[in-house]
Specification:
Strand 3 and strand 4 (73-76) form a beta hairpin. This protein has helices at residues 2-14, 30-37, 61-64, 110-116; strands at 20-23, 57-59, 67-69, 73-76, 92-93, 100-101. By secondary structure, the chain is of the alpha+beta class. The protein has four helices and six strands; from the N terminus they run αβαβαββββα.
Length: 117
């Protein structure tokens, strides 16, 4: 909850219009989440369903060309003629090959998850 509020407050204070703010948050396997929250719960693995994603893509290769690292978040700048991005000029641009998805972020352990709650 705190991270969500922090994202909203940072976005409100920095945004000029059209940016996408992406939080830097760890990922966690659903099976680990279930076994941590409900240890005695019976889980039936059914496999992957048609159209189901294994990983969530948060910043694509194409978007990386317009992405700045602002510390605890990334900002994807919009593609508009009126956009100048001067308010973000002091922030580091990510590499053009950068991509951010659930398969290349920090994985949250059960122990670390319990610290959050």
């Amino acid at each position: 909850l705190d991270k969500g509020v922090e994202l909203v407050m940072d976005a409100l204070s920095l945004m000029k219009g059209g940016e996408n703010f992406i939080p830097k948050l760890p990922a966690m396997k659903v099976s680990d989440l279930i076994s941590t929250m409900i240890p005695n719960c019976e889980v039936k693995v059914t496999g992957i369903r048609p159209g189901e994603k294994l990983h969530e893509m948060l910043i694509t290769d194409d978007e990386s060309r317009r992405t700045k690292d602002i510390g605890v978040h990334y900002v994807i700048e919009p593609v508009h003629d009126w956009w100048d991005g001067s308010h973000l000029k002091d922030n580091k641009k990510v590499s053009d090959e950068f991509r951010y998805s659930s398969d290349n972020v920090e994985v949250l352990s059960k122990e670390d998850f319990l610290k959050y709650i």
